[in-house]
Amino acid sequence: MTVTSIRLASCAGALSIAVAAHADFRAALADYNAGRYLAAHEQFQRLAELGDCSSQFNLGAMALKGQGGPKDSGSGVGWLRAAAANGCQPLLGEKLLALEARLDATERRAAEEIVARYGHEALRAQGIVEPDFSCRTDSPATLLDSPAPEYPHSAGGVRRPALVITVLTIGADGLARDPEILLALPGEGFAASAVEAWLNSRFAPATRAGAPVESRLPAKLVFGVEGSQGLAGIEAVARARKRADAGDADAAYTTGLAATLDASLGISSARAGQLLLSAARDGDAEAQYWVGRELRATAACHPQANGAVWLRHAADGGSAAAQLILAVDLLAGAPSAAQLASARSLLEQASGADSFYVRKHVAALLAASPLDAVRDPATALRVALELAAGEIQTDPQMFETLAAAYAASGDFGSAIAKQRMALRKAEALAWDTRLMKQRLGEYRAGRAWRGALLPLPSSGAPGAQ
What we know:
The protein contains 20 helices and 8 strands. By secondary structure, the protein is mostly helical. It has 3 domains: 23-125; 139-308, TonB (TolA/TonB C-terminal domain), CATH 3.30.2420; 319-444, Tetratricopeptide repeat domain (Serine Threonine Protein Phosphatase 5, Tetratricopeptide repeat). The strands form 3 sheets. A 3-stranded antiparallel β-sheet has the order 1-6-7, with no helix packed on it. Strands 4-3-8 form a 3-stranded antiparallel β-sheet, with helices on both faces. The chain is globular. The two termini are 38 Å apart. Residues 1-14 and 459-465 have low confidence and may be disordered.
């Protein structure tokens, strides 16, 4: 790690601003060098929350000099102590001891507060550093039987290799629901074929204390790869691996995600996790969502590490799935006016996503939420109709969401027709359709449905290949 020549006269000995390689840090450093200290401070703060010791070091140096805020020796030393604990001790040498010796009692308390929030042990407890995705009280769901996926007609007759990685809800009945596509290479047509195959599959459900429970399960489907090539035979995956080796965060996410489910890349599970965590730290919003979602799924075993920080960063970075989760969190219980406004803003952002899973849940919330301030029938119907015009036509929940949106808009004839279609598809998959029939009864009576149409999966067992 190198340092610039910027000196802080208030330090005991010279402290320099730290320089790191990734893009978000370089942007913060550019603001600093241009004298935009408030903007630099804000960006360093965001990175410091994720355990970036260089950013923590720089916050300490800025606090000691009064850049981006008033001079604050206590906070400055606190940030430097956190930086040292998180890997930047070589930048400090013996200077920290001298700085600490100058603090009065009030300043020492301020330093301790920073360390208590951002020191290594505090961040480890939150799952920011060294996250633990295990939950040994649960046994994950496992695949029992799955039909061979149909090669999509949209591929134009050329059997291109392709990869689709999905997360599924596996019910206590062993049936798959609510597919979420995390990765599709290439995207055209293959996601729809993967969803159809998984919805028609059978699983042994996850268990907790010997009893079957609902869980989320990651799963992959590979198309058109011959012999022993494995994922290395998919050109997009091979290219991503090369870019990941060069430090590209988006490629590190793709490579790490693929390697968590397939050993043919020759990447260990530990290395795959490192790639995903590195991509998340470097600002890749989808990687941040992945880390946050995995932590949330295992929060029953370590509740303090619930993924909230990662999900907030992912949402701020544009992850629609993270925006959806945070909106649902805000709407739990009896939300305040401010929480309702924040949730609506997040749902508005998420409604424009290209994610089938996210848009389906957003439309369901806007159509059927019991909260008047959340419902937006016009937007719900627009999003649901966009979904229905897409390539995925085998998910009963999509048609049920469209039915709820029609009912919320007062078009009960269309609501009944779409709910019947949802029922037919659900019955063909052997789903329990009692609630779906109740909703159909409401529409026949000219009443819209109010309630949790598509509840998000609860925290529980992590899925496994």
